[in-house]
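Exercise 7.
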Amino acid sequence: MIREDATPVEAAKRCMVDASIQVATKLGYSDAAGALRGVLMLADQPRSMDYLVEQTGYSKSTVSTNMAHLERMGIVRRVRLPGDKRYYYSTIISIDEGTKVHNENFRQIMQIIAAGAAKAQEILEGGEEGDDARWLRSRLALVREECSKALTLADLLDRFTITELIDILKLEVEGRKKGGK
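Solution. The predicted structure, written as tokens, is:
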């Protein structure tokens, strides 16, 4: 919430922090994760844990836990500044950098699921028959097929910048409009 006595700069910053909290809530993250991302999004340089504690009012343990979560998600990165042993944090704003991190997480998830489906199919081979087994075999085949598509998409996304993908898709949309697809 924006204080009535806030300067325009303070009010603008609060709007971004509030928006980041709303996004975090929508994605199932804590308010603290949203607030921390919002503060970092507006920072002009990597910021220390102490700075984040001061700016958000959260405890050091809350900040630490949430920063580790945001780092695993590929939303922030932890860095060291020359001559300083402490860690600092910055948010990933570049859509290209963020997409690469999210794409790699997505690829790893799909590989894990595909491997689990393959192992499950092995277990079923030569095993029990019946409707449940047939249905499960069919479902596992579908899961593997969808994972394969997802991995192909991830590989293709890695080959282009977001600007290039936008241009490619715009051309495709225009081509479809002209071709009547």
